[in-house]
Design brief:
By secondary structure, the chain is an alpha/beta fold. The protein has 4 helices and 13 strands. The two termini are 32 Å apart.
Length: 242
C-alpha cells in the first residue's frame, strides 16, 4: 500500500511539473538538449533538435557534442520542477540550472550574424548578479542605466569565452538569490566546470548561432540523464538516445 501511495504521489507530482512547463516545451520548434550523468557531474553531452510544426516529432540535427556545466553540477531552476530533495539552483552556488528555458538573445565580442536579438560587448557591458538591483539578471550598458548594483560581471573582460554566447532565460522573474547571468558560451577546456553556465567548443556555439531562429521559440532542455529518461515521454521531450 505504501509503495502504491508513493508511486501515485510521484505521478501526481510529475504531472503537475509537466503542466507547469507545458508552454515552453510544447511551443518550441528548436531545442538544445543537454544532459549529465548525475547532479554533481561537470561534463555531459548536448544534441540539437528541431521540428517543422508543433504536431510533428522532434528530429535530431547533426551529431551530439560535449559540454561542461557548473563546477558543482546541476540544480533545479526552481521548485516547480521537483518537489523532492534534489538540489536547487541559487546565486553563486556554482551550479547550472536544470529545467526548460527559453533562449532569448545572443552576444559576442564582435558583430555576428545570428537570428536572435544581439548585443556586441563593450567595456560598459555588464551582467548584474546583485539580487538587490533592479537590473538583476540582466545584461546592461552601465552608461545607459542607473548603476544600483555592487556586483556584476564585466562581460568584455571575460575574453574569448564570451566571443559568442546565448542568454538562457533562467530566473526571468528575478527572484532574489535565484541565480543570474546564465549563458551558453565557449568553454575554457573540456574538463573545467563553469560558474553556472553551459559551455562548449567554439565550433559548436558557432553551429548554434548558424542554426537558431527566434521565431521558432528555441529552448534549452537541461537535466540529468535519469530524469530525462524517466520524464521524456510525460513531458513530451525530444527522444534522446541515453
Amino acid at each position: 500500500m505504501r509503495l502504491l501511495t508513493a508511486l501515485f504521489l510521484l505521478i501526481l507530482s510529475a504531472t503537475a511539473i509537466a503542466q507547469g512547463q507545458k508552454t515552453l516545451s510544447d511551443n518550441a520548434l528548436q531545442a538544445v538538449v543537454a544532459t549529465t550523468e548525475n547532479w554533481s557531474a561537470t561534463q555531459g553531452n548536448a544534441q540539437l533538435f528541431e521540428r517543422r510544426s508543433l504536431k510533428e516529432k522532434w528530429k535530431a540535427v547533426g551529431k551530439k557534442f560535449q559540454i561542461v556545466v557548473g563546477k558543482n553540477g546541476l540544480g533545479w531552476s526552481d521548485a516547480s520542477y521537483s518537489a523532492n530533495a534534489n538540489p536547487f539552483k541559487r546565486e553563486g552556488d556554482g551550479k547550472s540550472p536544470a529545467g526548460i528555458f527559453s533562449l532569448t538573445a545572443a552576444f559576442g565580442s564582435s558583430n555576428q550574424k545570428v537570428n536572435l536579438p544581439f548585443t556586441q560587448l563593450a567595456e560598459s557591458t555588464e551582467c548584474v548578479d546583485d539580487s538587490k538591483s533592479k537590473q538583476y539578471n540582466l545584461i546592461v550598458d552601465n552608461k545607459q542605466v542607473a548603476v544600483d548594483w555592487d556586483s556584476s560581471e564585466k562581460m568584455s573582460a571575460v575574453g574569448r569565452q564570451y566571443d559568442s554566447g546565448i542568454f538562457v532565460a533562467h530566473n526571468s522573474e528575478q527572484k532574489q538569490f535565484g541565480g543570474s547571468c546564465i549563458f551558453l558560451h565557449i568553454w575554457s577546456n573540456s574538463t573545467t566546470g563553469t560558474a553556472g553556465c553551459t559551455a562548449m567548443e567554439r565550433t559548436n556555439i558557432e553551429r548554434i548561432f548558424n542554426w537558431i531562429e527566434a521565431n521558432k521559440k528555441p529552448v534549452l532542455i537541461q537535466m540529468t540523464r535519469d530524469w530525462y529518461r524517466d520524464y521524456q515521454k510525460l513531458w513530451k521531450l525530444p527522444k534522446l538516445k541515453l
